């Protein structure tokens, strides 16, 4: 049997380990962060399992401050000797660091919103369950004379933070993700589908995902022509998540105050309180939201409250570190707690039905920043790009490269579908929780056509 | 020196006997850690215990790696230190073949009972994976290296250099940048890593390797006085390298910081590029990444065979029988080499992560595709086409937590024989842009359509550099782009660029890889204005 070989670090064990470590750090202030992980995965390609893995790891991060001079050391051994060596090393490193004018003492004890993010169904996943789910996906492709790839990954994490001010925080969570790419044997069609959740049982059927990917693969054969230009697009949730998840890195108060952010105002100040995108758009973070179930505190144990970033198009908040917040006399606004975009009631079909001429986008690939001043990004469509005419999907089109601003895209939203937990494009691991709706966006800018399928 | 399978088994069994103390004890780890010698011995013994356990459980092949990774990052921002961090990660990963299918398991607990548990778990997982069906994995032949040893060619161990010296170097460099008008922000860092691997396989190898990497970086930001815009310039010409602290000292961040800051400030006032077709003169500090994306990834054999379809993608260079020996990648003077032997390059090792000795081989010869990057699992797939049944040694795993798979070696464009200097390329260009440094980069999943930016863009008119441009990115299609190459710089323009963060695989793994190239010119490439696109 290949179920988890050791139990995940419990709260009591984590507290003991934190205490054992903290008491070894001879410094003015100290912090210990313990992260234990049990992870597993199974990967398939060419209709067969190609690799898999089960990993157990535990990392201890020690931070020490002598006055305002600080340093950090990470170790993944927890025997007395290793902890003593790490504690000695971190104090030595802090001793050679210069005074830090931005030093903030570790936070004192806090209260955290309870987040039930740990599910036995996910912890119980083993190589057999993974292989069965993978076989279901691969067989769906095989039976349709298609070629299936899939990736199923899961993890259970326990994170504990303790510091010399008496703070102790503990959170455990699970997450799983499944994605599948199905291609036609001649390589002329390709489709993708994926899903993620903390609870394996709420992920849905892997076989159903393979069916969606297979349908897209078949439908994308014989793509016609398409010209680059501005199109009305229906973005499926994964495509929306691929762009909306780029927003948090720009939602930083310090960057905006310093004049190097799209949320900096010419002449000084920030755009907080101003309309920055379409009034249809509301985006917030809330670790307790059932669609997010994110970690309720930051890496130093600061609680992450619900924060609305954009409400009805108006910029409400920018994230602010403890130092930057203290300097400006307001409470810190941590970034974290997942990201959710408020949606509407329309299912995807109805969004498509409302578009006279446009394109349906399954997901994006290789999205990279081209201009941080405007949040312009480039990337390509992938695994299912279709023409919409008269409210119906009428043909497959080749993949396209876009050059588009995330803020511009959110300004030109005309309709929103139902919000749900979404697996963004990428390697297919669960990642930071995000919940978005499908969107209709006008004048989405494509600059060239790609031959890639 | 080679050793027979029987000798190796004997050695392995001796190791087991030496460890015949009560099971479940963590004494071993505690007893063995104080000295490097005993740590090495512990690593060897754990590997051999794992191999024995895997074999006993039914594995037809197994390899075990004990990997210790130490990283140190010293970061600064303007006049202050923003972080001093060190990390150590140590663990054991065991990969096995059972009934022709792979299994992999890994743990941070370096005790002998765990080594056996991990090995058996990998075997059981492989057996389950095999039950899903599919063709059996067949491994290419490999030599046995029972006492392999390799170490990066460093002069100064970066972990022996006091942190104070690193801080001083960075803060002095920052001060130089901040002297420049309009430069308001500067961040800099020195990153160092050491990867110690003990590898053992049932093919009879026991190999110890120590890889060092260092990477000094800087980013300078100039802000317009009316805060209407900002421009950042990063240290694109300074590559990460497989060298020691001597490299950090040699690149002279302090001496370069001022000119970088001047360029950031000047770019605020630079002319915005007019979109259109230009001849591009690409400096090696930029071209390396274009090579990485459009040649390096395109010539990975797993992609060509569909094994990466789910994430990284496939490649336009497929199927192999349709392109090997016939596909005209570029002009006749274009030669690209796969390599794991070049001194100082990031993917340079003694052996790969499945015990194949470092290799160097042509991928593009006289403009034609002639080979791919391969592992032991893959070599047989194209052996009839290449006449080579051996792996090119491209198996790599990011850490003990990750299973090996095909990763990019150093893939380098060889310099031209005509010996052109960079100035010759510029002088021969009537309307063009010289691009230095890596910028934004994006390419499709079959490596056709790409868009690349850079750090600094110099406008060329009538064979001379006439000023700076901003907002430049070029879009092209890989085959057309490389066939538009018409001038190659000589050996004097050849430099190594590289990246520490090349991602691929599920779960994603990071790879460090260098690309050497000369300066080169490409005719009639489409340039867009990123601000107007």
Architecture overview:
The complex is a heterodimer of chains A (453) and B (533). Helices cover 21% and strands 36% of the residues of chain A. Chain A has ten helices and 19 strands. Mean pLDDT of chain A is 95; it is low at 1-6. Chain A starts with 10 loop residues before the first helix and ends with a strand. In chain A, the strands form three sheets. In chain A, strands 3-2-1-4-5-6 form a six-stranded antiparallel beta sheet. Chain A has a six-stranded mixed beta sheet with strand order 10-9-8-11-18-17, covered by helices on one side. With 453 residues, chain A is of the alpha+beta class. Chain B is of the alpha+beta class. Chain B has helices spanning 5-18, 27-32, 36-56, 112-131, 163-178, 245-251, 253-268, 284-296, 301-304, 320-323, 376-379, 383-386, 422-427, 478-483; strands at residues 61-77, 80-98, 101-107, 148-151, 183-201, 206-223, 230-234, 271-272, 276-282, 336-339, 360-365, 368-369, 395-396, 405-406, 410-413, 431-443, 449-461, 464-470, 472-477, 485-488, 495-504, 509-517, 520-529. The longest helix of chain B has 21 residues, at 36-56. Chain B has 14 helices and 23 strands. Chains A and B meet through strand 1, strand 2, strand 3, helix 2 and helix 4 of A and strand 2, strand 3, helix 4, helix 5 and strand 16 of B. Strand 3 of chain A pairs parallel with strand 2 (80-98) of chain B, so a sheet runs across the interface.
Summarize this, please?
The complex is a heterodimer of chains A (453) and B (533). Helices cover 21% and strands 36% of the residues of chain A.
Gyration radius of chain A, in Å: 24 Å
The number of strands of chain B is 23
What is the arithmetic mean of pLDDT of chain B? 93
Poorly predicted runs of chain B: 1-34
Kindly estimate the percentage of residues of chain A that lie in beta strands according to DSSP: 35-45%
Low-confidence stretches of chain A: 1-6
* N-to-C CA distance of chain A: 40 Å
Radius of gyration of chain B: 25 Å
**How many β-strands of chain A, per DSSP?**
19
The biggest sheet of chain B amounts to: 7 strands, mixed
Range of helix content of chain A:
10-25%
The helix tally of chain B amounts to 14
Shape call of chain A: globular
Q: Structural class of the helix and strand makeup of chain A? A: alpha+beta
Question: Which percent range fits the helix content of chain B?
Answer: 25-40%
> What is the approximate shape of chain B?
globular
Largest sheet features of chain A = 6 strands, antiparallel
The share of residues in extended strands of chain B comes to 35-45%
Name the quaternary structure: heterodimer
